[in-house]
Amino acid sequence: MIQYRIGIDGGGTHCRGRLVNQQDQCLAEFTGGPANIYSQFESGLKEVEKVVTELFKRAHLSTTEYANSVMVAGLAGANVPSIKQRLTQWNILGLKHAIVSDVETACFGAHLGHPGGVFICGTGSQAAVWDGTRFYLLGGWGAQLSDLASGAVLGQKALRMALLAHEGIMTSSPCMQYIMEDFKNDAEIMLLWTQHAEPKDWAKYAKAVYEFAQCSDHHATTLVKQSAVDAEMMITAVMRYTQDNITLLGGIAKPLIPWLSDEIRYRISQAKGDALDGALLLSKHYWA
Protein backbone atom coordinates (compact mmCIF):
# COMPACT_ATOMS: atom_id res chain seq x y z
CA MET A 1 0.00 0.00 0.00
CA ILE A 2 1.32 3.45 -0.95
CA GLN A 3 1.94 5.55 2.14
CA TYR A 4 4.30 8.21 0.82
CA ARG A 5 4.94 10.08 -2.43
CA ILE A 6 8.16 11.78 -3.52
CA GLY A 7 8.46 14.51 -6.12
CA ILE A 8 11.82 15.47 -7.60
CA ASP A 9 12.71 18.43 -9.81
CA GLY A 10 16.27 18.18 -11.10
CA GLY A 11 18.11 20.51 -13.46
CA GLY A 12 21.50 21.95 -14.21
CA THR A 13 21.58 24.11 -11.08
CA HIS A 14 19.92 22.09 -8.32
CA CYS A 15 17.75 19.11 -7.45
CA ARG A 16 14.69 19.81 -5.31
CA GLY A 17 12.71 17.14 -3.52
CA ARG A 18 9.50 16.96 -1.52
CA LEU A 19 8.06 14.07 0.49
CA VAL A 20 4.34 13.95 1.29
CA ASN A 21 1.97 11.46 2.90
CA GLN A 22 -1.32 10.17 1.51
CA GLN A 23 -3.09 13.26 2.83
CA ASP A 24 -0.69 15.43 0.78
CA GLN A 25 0.89 16.82 3.93
CA CYS A 26 4.49 17.86 3.34
CA LEU A 27 6.77 15.83 5.59
CA ALA A 28 10.11 17.08 4.27
CA GLU A 29 11.79 19.18 1.61
CA PHE A 30 15.43 19.28 0.56
CA THR A 31 17.52 20.85 -2.20
CA GLY A 32 20.69 19.26 -3.48
CA GLY A 33 23.13 19.91 -6.32
CA PRO A 34 22.84 19.64 -10.12
CA ALA A 35 20.91 16.74 -11.64
CA ASN A 36 21.10 17.16 -15.41
CA ILE A 37 21.39 13.52 -16.44
CA TYR A 38 22.31 14.29 -20.03
CA SER A 39 25.50 16.15 -19.16
CA GLN A 40 26.23 14.28 -15.91
CA PHE A 41 24.36 10.97 -15.87
CA GLU A 42 26.03 9.21 -12.94
CA SER A 43 26.45 12.22 -10.67
CA GLY A 44 22.94 13.45 -11.50
CA LEU A 45 21.38 10.18 -10.35
CA LYS A 46 23.59 10.13 -7.26
CA GLU A 47 22.17 13.56 -6.45
CA VAL A 48 18.64 12.17 -6.74
CA GLU A 49 19.58 9.35 -4.36
CA LYS A 50 21.09 11.88 -1.96
CA VAL A 51 17.91 13.98 -2.00
CA VAL A 52 15.68 10.94 -1.41
CA THR A 53 17.86 9.77 1.47
CA GLU A 54 17.79 13.22 3.05
CA LEU A 55 14.01 13.51 2.66
CA PHE A 56 13.42 10.28 4.57
CA LYS A 57 15.96 11.29 7.19
CA ARG A 58 14.27 14.67 7.74
CA ALA A 59 10.86 13.03 7.89
CA HIS A 60 12.21 10.55 10.49
CA LEU A 61 11.29 7.61 8.26
CA SER A 62 13.26 4.43 7.85
CA THR A 63 14.46 3.39 4.41
CA THR A 64 12.28 0.31 4.87
CA GLU A 65 9.42 2.67 3.98
CA TYR A 66 10.74 2.78 0.40
CA ALA A 67 8.58 -0.29 -0.14
CA ASN A 68 5.50 1.81 0.69
CA SER A 69 6.55 4.80 -1.39
CA VAL A 70 6.50 5.99 -5.01
CA MET A 71 8.63 8.64 -6.69
CA VAL A 72 8.35 10.70 -9.86
CA ALA A 73 11.49 12.60 -10.83
CA GLY A 74 11.49 15.24 -13.54
CA LEU A 75 15.11 15.53 -14.65
CA ALA A 76 16.79 17.67 -17.29
CA GLY A 77 18.04 15.45 -20.10
CA ALA A 78 15.52 12.65 -19.55
CA ASN A 79 13.89 13.48 -22.89
CA VAL A 80 16.89 12.08 -24.81
CA PRO A 81 16.13 8.50 -26.02
CA SER A 82 19.58 7.09 -25.20
CA ILE A 83 19.30 8.50 -21.68
CA LYS A 84 15.84 6.95 -21.29
CA GLN A 85 17.34 3.59 -22.20
CA ARG A 86 20.11 3.91 -19.61
CA LEU A 87 17.54 4.83 -16.97
CA THR A 88 15.87 1.43 -17.29
CA GLN A 89 18.90 -0.02 -15.45
CA TRP A 90 18.67 2.39 -12.52
CA ASN A 91 16.75 1.90 -9.30
CA ILE A 92 16.64 2.71 -5.62
CA LEU A 93 16.11 -0.55 -3.80
CA GLY A 94 12.43 -1.13 -3.11
CA LEU A 95 11.26 2.29 -4.36
CA LYS A 96 8.75 2.33 -7.22
CA HIS A 97 9.66 5.20 -9.48
CA ALA A 98 9.23 6.91 -12.83
CA ILE A 99 11.70 9.34 -14.38
CA VAL A 100 10.47 11.86 -16.92
CA SER A 101 11.91 15.11 -18.24
CA ASP A 102 11.69 18.25 -16.13
CA VAL A 103 9.55 19.93 -18.79
CA GLU A 104 6.89 17.23 -18.32
CA THR A 105 6.62 17.74 -14.58
CA ALA A 106 6.65 21.51 -15.11
CA CYS A 107 3.80 21.23 -17.61
CA PHE A 108 1.76 18.92 -15.38
CA GLY A 109 2.30 21.22 -12.41
CA ALA A 110 1.56 24.45 -14.28
CA HIS A 111 -1.92 23.19 -15.14
CA LEU A 112 -2.38 20.99 -12.04
CA GLY A 113 -2.80 17.88 -14.16
CA HIS A 114 -5.27 19.40 -16.62
CA PRO A 115 -4.52 19.67 -20.36
CA GLY A 116 -2.33 22.59 -21.37
CA GLY A 117 1.06 23.61 -22.68
CA VAL A 118 4.23 25.27 -21.44
CA PHE A 119 7.20 27.00 -22.98
CA ILE A 120 10.11 27.00 -20.56
CA CYS A 121 12.58 29.73 -21.36
CA GLY A 122 15.56 29.99 -19.05
CA THR A 123 19.21 29.06 -19.60
CA GLY A 124 17.84 26.65 -22.21
CA SER A 125 14.35 26.29 -23.61
CA GLN A 126 11.82 23.56 -24.30
CA ALA A 127 8.09 23.24 -24.80
CA ALA A 128 5.62 20.56 -23.77
CA VAL A 129 1.92 19.81 -24.09
CA TRP A 130 -0.18 17.51 -21.90
CA ASP A 131 -3.39 16.53 -23.70
CA GLY A 132 -4.88 14.59 -20.81
CA THR A 133 -3.41 11.31 -22.01
CA ARG A 134 0.16 11.88 -23.12
CA PHE A 135 2.92 14.48 -23.42
CA TYR A 136 4.24 16.05 -26.62
CA LEU A 137 7.73 17.57 -26.35
CA LEU A 138 9.27 20.23 -28.57
CA GLY A 139 12.88 21.45 -28.52
CA GLY A 140 15.25 20.93 -25.65
CA TRP A 141 18.23 19.74 -27.69
CA GLY A 142 20.82 22.16 -26.32
CA ALA A 143 22.07 25.63 -27.22
CA GLN A 144 24.08 24.48 -30.24
CA LEU A 145 21.09 22.97 -32.03
CA SER A 146 17.95 24.16 -30.30
CA ASP A 147 16.91 26.22 -27.22
CA LEU A 148 15.25 29.02 -29.20
CA ALA A 149 14.83 32.31 -27.28
CA SER A 150 16.84 30.94 -24.35
CA GLY A 151 19.26 32.92 -22.24
CA ALA A 152 22.21 30.91 -23.54
CA VAL A 153 21.36 31.50 -27.19
CA LEU A 154 20.64 35.20 -26.60
CA GLY A 155 23.92 35.58 -24.71
CA GLN A 156 25.86 33.91 -27.51
CA LYS A 157 24.29 36.21 -30.12
CA ALA A 158 25.03 39.23 -27.95
CA LEU A 159 28.72 38.37 -27.56
CA ARG A 160 29.06 37.78 -31.28
CA MET A 161 27.49 41.18 -31.98
CA ALA A 162 29.66 42.85 -29.33
CA LEU A 163 32.78 41.48 -30.98
CA LEU A 164 31.64 42.76 -34.39
CA ALA A 165 31.09 46.18 -32.89
CA HIS A 166 34.46 46.04 -31.11
CA GLU A 167 36.21 45.44 -34.43
CA GLY A 168 34.30 48.23 -36.16
CA ILE A 169 32.51 45.82 -38.50
CA MET A 170 29.23 47.27 -37.25
CA THR A 171 28.30 50.25 -35.11
CA SER A 172 28.53 49.97 -31.36
CA SER A 173 26.03 50.76 -28.60
CA PRO A 174 26.07 51.00 -24.79
CA CYS A 175 25.02 47.33 -24.54
CA MET A 176 27.86 46.18 -26.79
CA GLN A 177 30.34 48.35 -24.87
CA TYR A 178 29.10 46.91 -21.58
CA ILE A 179 29.70 43.35 -22.79
CA MET A 180 33.18 44.08 -24.16
CA GLU A 181 34.16 45.85 -20.94
CA ASP A 182 33.42 42.59 -19.12
CA PHE A 183 36.27 41.12 -21.19
CA LYS A 184 38.53 44.15 -20.69
CA ASN A 185 37.84 45.15 -24.31
CA ASP A 186 40.08 42.30 -25.41
CA ALA A 187 38.90 39.89 -28.12
CA GLU A 188 41.41 37.23 -27.10
CA ILE A 189 40.16 37.23 -23.50
CA MET A 190 36.65 36.69 -24.88
CA LEU A 191 37.92 33.90 -27.14
CA LEU A 192 39.62 32.08 -24.26
CA TRP A 193 36.45 32.45 -22.15
CA THR A 194 34.35 30.76 -24.84
CA GLN A 195 36.53 27.66 -24.72
CA HIS A 196 35.28 26.83 -21.23
CA ALA A 197 31.92 28.63 -21.13
CA GLU A 198 28.84 26.58 -20.26
CA PRO A 199 25.25 27.49 -21.21
CA LYS A 200 24.69 29.20 -17.85
CA ASP A 201 27.75 31.39 -18.49
CA TRP A 202 26.41 32.59 -21.84
CA ALA A 203 22.96 33.08 -20.31
CA LYS A 204 24.15 35.55 -17.69
CA TYR A 205 24.43 38.20 -20.44
CA ALA A 206 20.76 37.83 -21.42
CA LYS A 207 19.56 39.86 -18.43
CA ALA A 208 21.75 42.80 -19.48
CA VAL A 209 20.49 42.61 -23.06
CA TYR A 210 16.87 42.86 -21.88
CA GLU A 211 17.73 45.75 -19.56
CA PHE A 212 19.45 47.69 -22.35
CA ALA A 213 16.55 46.94 -24.70
CA GLN A 214 14.19 48.57 -22.21
CA CYS A 215 16.36 51.69 -22.56
CA SER A 216 16.01 51.55 -26.37
CA ASP A 217 19.57 50.40 -27.06
CA HIS A 218 19.31 49.63 -30.78
CA HIS A 219 21.46 46.49 -30.80
CA ALA A 220 19.86 45.08 -27.64
CA THR A 221 16.43 45.81 -29.09
CA THR A 222 17.33 43.93 -32.28
CA LEU A 223 18.50 40.91 -30.27
CA VAL A 224 15.41 40.86 -28.04
CA LYS A 225 13.07 41.17 -31.03
CA GLN A 226 14.82 38.18 -32.61
CA SER A 227 14.33 36.21 -29.40
CA ALA A 228 10.66 37.16 -29.38
CA VAL A 229 10.26 35.88 -32.95
CA ASP A 230 11.94 32.60 -31.97
CA ALA A 231 9.75 32.30 -28.87
CA GLU A 232 6.62 32.87 -30.94
CA MET A 233 7.73 30.12 -33.30
CA MET A 234 7.86 27.71 -30.35
CA ILE A 235 4.62 28.94 -28.80
CA THR A 236 2.81 28.73 -32.15
CA ALA A 237 3.97 25.11 -32.43
CA VAL A 238 2.55 24.44 -28.95
CA MET A 239 -0.74 26.02 -30.04
CA ARG A 240 -1.03 23.44 -32.83
CA TYR A 241 -1.13 20.71 -30.18
CA THR A 242 -3.57 22.30 -27.75
CA GLN A 243 -6.46 24.73 -27.56
CA ASP A 244 -5.97 24.97 -23.80
CA ASN A 245 -3.95 27.51 -21.83
CA ILE A 246 -0.23 27.97 -22.37
CA THR A 247 2.15 29.03 -19.61
CA LEU A 248 5.59 30.59 -19.95
CA LEU A 249 8.11 29.49 -17.34
CA GLY A 250 11.79 30.11 -16.60
CA GLY A 251 14.00 33.07 -15.85
CA ILE A 252 13.67 34.64 -19.29
CA ALA A 253 9.86 34.38 -19.44
CA LYS A 254 9.01 37.56 -17.51
CA PRO A 255 11.21 39.97 -19.50
CA LEU A 256 10.25 38.23 -22.76
CA ILE A 257 6.44 38.52 -22.47
CA PRO A 258 6.16 42.29 -23.21
CA TRP A 259 7.93 41.72 -26.55
CA LEU A 260 5.44 39.12 -27.75
CA SER A 261 2.52 39.90 -30.04
CA ASP A 262 -0.93 40.61 -28.58
CA GLU A 263 -2.24 37.37 -30.10
CA ILE A 264 0.38 35.29 -28.32
CA ARG A 265 0.08 37.15 -25.02
CA TYR A 266 -3.68 36.53 -25.06
CA ARG A 267 -3.08 32.77 -24.90
CA ILE A 268 -0.65 32.93 -21.97
CA SER A 269 -1.90 32.05 -18.50
CA GLN A 270 -0.31 32.05 -15.05
CA ALA A 271 1.08 28.79 -13.70
CA LYS A 272 -1.11 27.16 -11.06
CA GLY A 273 1.73 25.05 -9.66
CA ASP A 274 5.40 24.24 -10.16
CA ALA A 275 7.44 21.23 -11.25
CA LEU A 276 7.42 19.66 -7.77
CA ASP A 277 3.63 19.89 -7.72
CA GLY A 278 3.66 18.29 -11.15
CA ALA A 279 5.90 15.41 -10.05
CA LEU A 280 3.67 14.63 -7.08
CA LEU A 281 0.51 14.86 -9.18
CA LEU A 282 2.06 12.57 -11.78
CA SER A 283 2.77 10.04 -9.05
CA LYS A 284 -0.97 9.95 -8.40
CA HIS A 285 -1.62 9.60 -12.12
CA TYR A 286 0.80 6.68 -12.44
CA TRP A 287 -0.14 5.02 -9.18
CA ALA A 288 -3.80 5.97 -8.64
Automatic annotation (TrEMBL):
Q: Which SUPFAM superfamilies match?
A: Actin-like ATPase domain (SSF53067)
Q: Which UniProt keywords apply?
A: Kinase, Transferase
Under Gene3D superfamilies, the record lists: 3.30.420.40
Q: Which GO terms describe its molecular function?
A: kinase activity
Q: Which domain of life is it from?
A: Bacteria
Q: Which CDD domains match?
A: ASKHA_NBD_GspK-like (cd24082)
In this chain the ATPase BadF/BadG/BcrA/BcrD type domain maps to 6-265
Q: What is this protein called?
A: N-acetylglucosamine kinase
The record lists the organism as: Rosenbergiella australiborealis
